[in-house]
Amino acid sequence: MASAQIPPRSAWRAMLESAFYANSVRKTTIPELYSLTLKQPEVVVTSHPFYKPEQFGLSEDAKVLVSNDGGIVGRTARARRLVREMGADKGEYLRILSEAIYQLNKRGALWLEAIVGLHPDFMIKANLLSPVTDAKNMFDWGTNFTPWMQPWTGIYKNSRQINEPDILVLADPEWRDARFPDGLVIIDENENCAALLGLRYFGERKKGTLTLAWTIGTRQNMVACHGGIKTISENSPIAVFGLSGSGKSSLTNSHDHGETLKENEKVTVIHDDAFLIDLDADTTVALEPSLFDKTDAVKFNDPNIKFFYSAQNVAVTELDDSSRLIVAEDIRNENGRCIKSRDMFNHANHCKRPGSVIWLQKDPSLPPVCKVTDLGLAVAMGASLSTMRAKGVENVPAEELEKLVIEPFANPFRVHPLMVDCQQFRKLFKLGTECYVMNTHAFGLPGKEIDIPLQLSLSIVTGIVRKSIKWREWKLFPGLMIPQNGVDLFDANYDKKYKPTRKMNYLQFLRRRMQDRITYLSNKRDIEYDMENAFIDPLVTARVTIDKILNPI
Fold this sequence. Notes:
Layout: H1 11-19, E1 25-27, H2 30-38, E2 44-49, E3 63-67, E4 80-82, H3 90-105, E5 109-119, E6 122-131, H4 135-144, E7 146-147, H5 152-157, E8 167-172, E9 184-188, E10 193-197, H6 202-219, E11 222-232, E12 238-241, H7 248-253, E13 267-271, E14 274-278, E15 283-286, E16 290-294, E17 308-312, E18 315-318, E19 324-327, E20 337-341, E21 350-352, E22 356-361, E23 369-372, H8 375-383, E24 386-388, E25 404-406, H9 418-430, E26 434-439, E27 442-443, E28 450-451, H10 454-466, E29 471-473, E30 480-483, H11 486-489, H12 494-498, H13 504-526, H14 537-550
Parallel strand pairs: 1-5, 3-17, 4-9, 6-8, 8-10, 12-22, 22-26
Antiparallel strand pairs: 2-3, 5-6, 5-7, 9-10, 11-12, 11-13, 11-14, 14-15, 15-21, 16-20, 17-20, 18-19, 23-26, 23-30, 24-25, 27-28, 29-30
Helix pairs in contact: 1-3, 2-4, 8-9, 13-14
């Protein structure tokens, strides 16, 4: 079996594990949760058939069920508290958790088991405890991960044993405390357990579980990846890393790259959200069998709805024939979501180590694509990944949506130290994986930006896979190279639109963005003691290069 039977080694895990054994708790299954969800007052039963219901033990007439969460339809990062960072407040948080568990155990609750990881070399058992009234979220969690049923339990029992305790997640959306109006998430990553209190949004359960799985992976000499990975024919896998809205899913899931691929260039998608790269076995493992995707591009009666298992925060309308159908496109609210099968495209559960890694950035100072030739800079550009928040994905104030933010390795769910990821990615690049930076937003000075369309980004990925891009040194940014043949490959006006200039206003803009990265990483080093000079110095070198041009001696 994959995870070892290890007794609790902390008060956090002792409290959470004990909660699962209360008299008020019983184990449940996907079929029972479906029946309970049908009776949940706020749930809408649509007329869309559930995709392949037999694989979950459901009847052939099962339907796609829709739930809506109220005012909060995205993640609430500010609710998160890490045990390793609590300091003197640890005792108070333990008391809060103990009281929350007591109140939950006074009500009826359900225990659902699942498996995280789709390869026998990495399969971790996960457990979710929630009140009966939260059946829909539990059902969605069970269909998002691998449910605890045959044939998967048989594969799990014969998988590689990992000396880690099972993942434990307790979620009580009905919990309330005036001191925590945004809810409270307590994570003990060393003991693989988390409590999600006062939060309805399903994504909190999914990402909370993945957070613990990623951390387990890093302890097994793996690289934790919030991104997408695919193979194209016999070429080395290509991985893209970016937050929602960066084009991560669009670039990963495209079967033809905007018709730039040939018919014989077959795309196989591993996953568009979560995977681990095993540095010892030279393999990549997907963590989930399903997709949790935005529905902003799902049209009314879209044929892809046939692959849906569930939907959240979308509208429903009734036709003259009394059929009830999903209305998506983020008409009702932003960040509508669905859980669906990967059967909508050719897919696999694992592949080799990626031959290329692409950092997807929303940084107008950068051209559409650069190749990184310096190993330290390759890590630094990932650790200082610059982006803009996607509307509705996170529960943040409106003014924050307009600011550029840095999210290391595009993974806001990381709870282990940042240096762990830096060291693991450095190992990956030392093994020969190439690194690229793609700006998928717009290029140019504020107010004069030129959009970078998805079609161009898809063409660039094709060029990277085929190795058809000819590179030249970008003298303004040592360690980066830019396309020499962009006009021939991508756009007759590529250089006119996207070639970096030596004009003073652009150089000053580029320098400011470099300094933003340097400042961020320096603060990680000086305040949080979570960064090395090796990943700051390459950016300083680039900034000094520009300084010499702006201020010649």
